[in-house]
Design a protein that fits this description.
The chain contains 26 helices and 21 strands. The protein is α+β, with helices and mostly antiparallel strands. Among the domains are: about 1-130, Phosphorylase Kinase, domain 1 (2-Layer Sandwich), CATH 3.30.200; about 675-825, Butyryl-CoA Dehydrogenase, subunit A, domain 3 (Up-down Bundle). The chain has a six-stranded antiparallel beta sheet. The protein has a four-stranded antiparallel beta sheet with strand order 14-15-19-18, with no helix packed on it. Homodimer. This is Acyl-CoA dehydrogenase family member 11.
């Protein structure tokens, strides 16, 4: 399963305890911006990894900010010569961070004085992201697996493009003999069963060193040395690498050895554990979505501009297994000495080392290990690296467009939704409208809560929650919750584990009625706000606000748009969020804060500026505001073409000296744009999905009316002009549906940033299509279509709103055009 960085933390192993007071003194004096004065220090240890002990330092200033850092140190006790080179790691990270685009954490200081905490160490930036400890990526959707592997290959290519001379890393070394010596040193006095086979393998490798590796020629460059998925930190919401870690084995050498090492999951499962089989993907089967070995290599070769490695692939894989055996022999050696940092897994490292030796000896005796050239399926205009490259730029891919076949699971949910809406919501629409126009409009119709309970009972609750977010929340937040019991029928709060594409088929059905989304707890802005809290909220914020939102006990609002500035350009916003001691003080005016009129609305997510002097896109922050906080003044409900959307409503709100705790900030100061992009991608798409449903409702009502009404001597459905317009509406609706589904698919596979082009296309196309269809339906209904006797006018007003909400058409058209121009320059 994917793990957040914070999930890998555990109490410090007694064998790795250190002098925290000495560490605090050193960090305060040498780490720029370290909290103070007299900060409280909380030290935990990363349980992941088998090498240098790694710690999380959490420093909290009294009544002030809290910051986290990572400390890497050499292990205590006797260690192998040249192993655990934290000085090497620091040197590489510093050079890469200062001079390249390779994603690495920022390093702050290196301490070579062992008297401080017992061994040399360095302190670097803490990255909150996702690590995938298992190469098979269990619990990850197939499309996401593919994107993760391609991003892994692209990042490795970026490392291999580094000019080591330009960044001062030209004095590294690389040789087979080093790993042979390390293996021999690791075995100690007793010779393991594979000892002779290892020596034979070393001899074979020396005899088959590729020509380009015989000297420091064109094949020599920076090698990571341990490049694999669990040494990469991925962005919390996007399938891109934000940090390459564990550089202690980095060196200069033939970079194809790095590539081969990253391909070992196809050959062998080298994760230490108590089992008898260590077969790789080619033995046990490649998990759905993970690319074939050739495909992965093709992506790397394209981004690195390297030739296909078939000629020496046998050497590269054999050397990677040889090196891996040496490393794991060292891990096992440290375990026997009591100073291994990988916990219980380390005791199985010797077994892995032996298996790698056997695998390498078998591999060098195979006839064919890799095709001379990549197969035709990985060449030409639709090669995987070209598809991936276009997706990195937000461009669309023609691969599989239109081939959207929902699974049986989704079809069953879709049938249940349609039946629920037809049996329970359509019959109540008249009552809901009547209540919304009464003097009790700002109260909740009692039947709404009854229907919500029924929807929850039928498993049609929180369907919008993505699979990855549900998995994280289930583990971190809901353990022991009465409605969340993984694997049971009452696992209600976290949805059913759908991708955006799968949810698209269901969200469309909800869009057929303006009342339906909230019945299933899938209405805006709650869905976007819940997603923000799921992805970016602290555990305390989630417990206070996310759980009641997921339960449907409260609702929320999103306060961003301001009346005095053009808020389509969010850099214009003027609402201030100023830090004063333990509080942030908010001053400003917002409007079109949807949901704020609802009596159940208890929390607002507000976007304002914490630093007006910061770079343009670092001024904004998002913060949680309890709607009952003194100074929050709801001035009036706003009307949309005469509709006030009671009891939900859209409010104009004044924030006057509103004091909220500093703990209410989301993700940190200056992270507002980052959160907005994470929120708006799925949110915009949900609007588009619902618009497809609204247009379908319009088509149904239009056809029903045309078949039942007579004008000028025949049914409206018999008039040629109607038939032509009806056909055109169907064509445009189907085009928009496919565009929205393709956008959902790319959002699943590549994240918001990479899918931004097609998301913008969908956001422009869907409202305009819905407006045309609904306008035609209103026309066919005559005067009745303009009244509130049908849902058409309300659906039309909503669709017209969405040409502005979440970004006006002009902004999205600009995004599409810029991406097209960028692609033309490639």
């Amino acid at each position: 399963m994917a793990k957040l960085t914070s999930e890998l933390l555990r109490p410090v192993d007694p064998a790795h305890a250190l002098d925290e007071a000495a560490l605090l003194r050193y960090a305060a004096a040498n780490v720029p911006g370290f909290p103070g004065p007299a900060p409280a220090l909380a030290l935990t240890q990363f349980g992941h990894g088998q090498s240098n002990p790694t710690y999380c330092i959490q420093a909290s200033a009294p009544g002030g900010e809290t910051r986290r850092y990572v400390l890497r140190k050499k292990p205590p006790g006797a260690i192998l010569q040249s192993a655990h080179a934290v000085e090497r790691e620091y040197q590489v990270l510093k050079a890469l961070g200062a001079h390249t685009d390779v994603p690495v954490p920022k390093v702050y200081c290196l301490c070579t004085d062992a008297s401080v905490i017992g061994t040399p160490f360095y302190i670097m930036e803490y990255l909150e992201g996702i690590i995938y400890p298992d190469n098979a990526l269990p619990g990850v959707t197939p499309s996401k697996r593919r994107a993760i592997y391609f991003s892994t290959a692209k990042t490795l290519a970026a490392i291999h493009k580094v000019d080591v001379n330009a960044i001062g890393l030209q004095n590294f070394m690389f040789q087979v003999e080093r790993w042979e010596r390390q293996y021999l040193a690791s075995t100690g006095e007793g010779k393991p069963a594979r000892y002779q086979r290892m020596l034979d393998l070393a001899r074979w490798l020396k005899e088959h060193v590729p020509e380009e590796d015989s000297s420091a020629g064109s094949g020599t460059g920076l090698v990571h040395g341990d490049y694999r998925a669990d040494n990469l930190v991925f962005h919390p919401t996007e399938d891109r690498v934000i940090g390459v870690i564990d550089w202690e084995l980095s060196t200069l050498g033939n970079q194809m050895c790095d590539v081969a090492y990253s391909c070992l999951p196809y050959i062998i499962d080298a994760t230490p554990g108590e089992r008898t089989s260590y077969g790789g993907f080619q033995h046990i089967g490649i998990p759905d979505g993970i690319p074939q070995l050739e495909e992965y290599l093709s992506v790397y070769c394209s981004f690195s501009a390297r030739p296909w490695p078939a000629a020496n692939w046998k050497f590269y894989i054999a050397f990677s297994l040889f090196r891996g055996a040496s490393i794991y022999a060292g891990v096992y050696h440290r375990w026997t000495m009591g100073n291994a940092s990988g916990g219980e897994r380390a005791k199985f490292a010797g077994r892995v080392a032996n298996t790698m030796v056997d695998c390498a000896c078998d591999f060098i005796n195979r006839e064919n290990v890799l095709r001379e050239q990549p197969s035709r399926g990985f060449q030409g205009s639709e090669a995987p690296w070209q598809e991936f490259g276009r997706e990195q730029d937000g461009s669309t891919s023609t691969k599989d467009q239109g081939k959207f076949v929902p699974s049986e699971k989704v079809m069953q949910l879709r049938k249940k939704l349609i039946k629920f809406i037809e049996d329970h919501i359509y019959p109540m629409e008249g009552e809901f409208y009547k209540h919304a126009q009464s003097t009790s409009k700002w109260t909740i119709h009692p039947e709404e809560e009854t229907l919500k309970a029924l929807a929850k009972k039928e498993g049609l609750w929180n369907l919008f929650i993505p699979l990855d977010s549900a998995a994280r929340a289930r583990k971190l937040l809901f353990e022991g919750h009465p409605l969340v019991s993984p694997g049971s029928s009452n696992d209600l709060l976290l949805g059913v584990g759908l991708t955006n594409l799968e949810y698209g088929y269901l969200c469309e059905i909800m869009g057929r009625s303006v009342w339906a989304p909230q019945i299933f707890n899938c209405g805006a802005p709650d869905t976007g706000n819940m997603e923000v809290l799921l992805r970016y909220g602290t555990k305390e914020q989630q417990k206070q606000w996310l759980i009641p939102l997921l339960e449907g006990k409260i609702r929320s609002g999103f306060a961003m748009t301001e009346p005095q500035v053009a808020s389509s350009d969010a850099t214009n916003i003027e609402c201030s969020i100023s830090r004063q001691g333990d509080f942030y003080v908010i001053n400003g005016r917002k409007w079109w804060t949807s949901g704020a009129m609802d009596p159940r609305c208890k929390i607002l997510i507000l976007m304002g500026k914490t630093d007006f002097s910061a770079p343009k896109h670092k001024q904004q922050s998002m913060i949680l505001v309890d709607i009952n906080t003194p100074g929050v003044q709801i001035k009036r409900p706003l009307l949309v073409f005469g509709f006030d959307d009671a009891p939900h409503g859209h409010a104009e709100i004044v924030f006057e000296n509103v004091h909220v705790p500093v703990t209410n900030i989301l993700l940190g100061e200056g992270r507002g744009f980052e959160i907005a992009q994470g929120r708006l991608g799925p949110g915009r798409l949900h609007h588009c999905m619902r618009l497809i449903g609204a247009a379908e409702r319009g088509m149904d009502l239009m056809v029903e009316r045309a078949l039942s009404r007579t004008a000028f001597g025949k049914r409206i459905a018999q008039h040629g002009s109607f038939l032509s317009d009806l056909a055109k509406c169907r064509i445009e609706l189907e085009q928009a549906r496919l565009l929205v589904l393709e956008a959902a698919d790319q959002l699943d596979r590549h994240g918001n940033k990479k899918a931004r082009g097609i998301l913008a296309m969908a956001k422009v196309a869907a409202p305009n299509m819905a407006l045309k269809v609904l306008d035609m339906a209103m026309q066919v209904h005559g005067a009745a279509g303009l009244s509130s006797d049908t849902v058409l006018s309300h659906l039309w007003a909503t669709a017209r709103t969405l040409r502005l909400a979440d970004g006006p058409d002009e902004v999205h058209l600009g995004t599409i055009a810029k991406l097209e121009l960028q692609r033309a320059r490639l």
